[in-house]
Amino acid sequence: MTRGCLLACVRRPRLCRCAAGLTVLAAVVGCGKAPREQLSYSLATPQGWQPISGASVPLLPGEVLEAYEVPAPSARGSLVILRSGYLPRTQPKELLAQTRYLFLNLPEMKIQSEELVQVGGEAGIRFEVTGQGTGRNLSPTGLGKPIPPAGEKQLPTRRVWIRVPRGVEQGTLEIFYHVPEADRAALAPAFDEVLRSLRIRPS
């Protein structure tokens, strides 16, 4: 166990991270355990989806548990699983309303679908939006317009965002899947297989 992890477990602070207009509070849970063990989940990814880490992981709100590069014809996509904070007694319907409100305040993003779903045996939500991005992530916005990362080509990008509330200790399981919109239909069966493989043990 690292010194930083030991101190976190002793003091049990809350971590604050602000990204893409979201502030996330996440309790430190199970230092020293593998991410899947911490949140009691498992999943399988297709052969060819390579794990990524560090600066290669798209900037998203939450504590990254694992991340993969998704090969696509137009540009690389990404699959990132995170843990974010949890407000007591939050139910999927509240998460749906919160997520909808977020995107209604980002007019450059277009909501494609929103629904309550069963994911890995647990209740959650699924949100899909499109906007300008890199294929791997949606571009951050300023003054209502996407700001492209330096040196990266902009193209229509789809985000599939799945959120499963897990409780105070385990937070919220977040799944972010980004692909170029032009490649969405071709890659949909592979992503559907990932979701079918997902298993979440009751918290």
Describe the protein's architecture and organization:
By secondary structure, the protein is of the alpha+beta class. The chain has one domain (about 30-200): Protein Transport Mog1p, Chain A (3-Layer(aba) Sandwich). Helix content is about 20%, strand content about 40%. It has four helices and 13 strands. The strands form four sheets. A seven-stranded antiparallel sheet has the order 4-5-6-12-11-8-7, with helices on both faces. A two-stranded antiparallel sheet has the order 1-2. A two-stranded antiparallel sheet has the order 3-13. The longest helix has 14 residues, at about 185-195. It is globular, with a radius of gyration of 17 Å.
Quick recap:
This protein has 203 residues and is of the alpha+beta class. The chain contains four helices and 13 strands.
Features of the shown structure:
single chain, disordered N terminus, alpha+beta, 13 strands, seven-stranded antiparallel β-sheet, two-stranded antiparallel sheet, globular, Protein Transport Mog1p, Chain A, 203 residues
How many helices? The count is: 4
Morphology: globular
Task: Specify the biggest β-sheet.
Answer: 7 strands, antiparallel
* Strand order across the largest sheet: 4-5-6-12-11-8-7
Please write out the topology.
Layout: H1 3-11, E1 14-19, E2 22-27, H2 35-39, E3 41-42, E4 50-51, E5 63-70, E6 77-84, H3 92-104, E7 110-119, E8 122-133, E9 141-142, E10 145-146, E11 155-167, E12 171-180, H4 184-197, E13 199-200
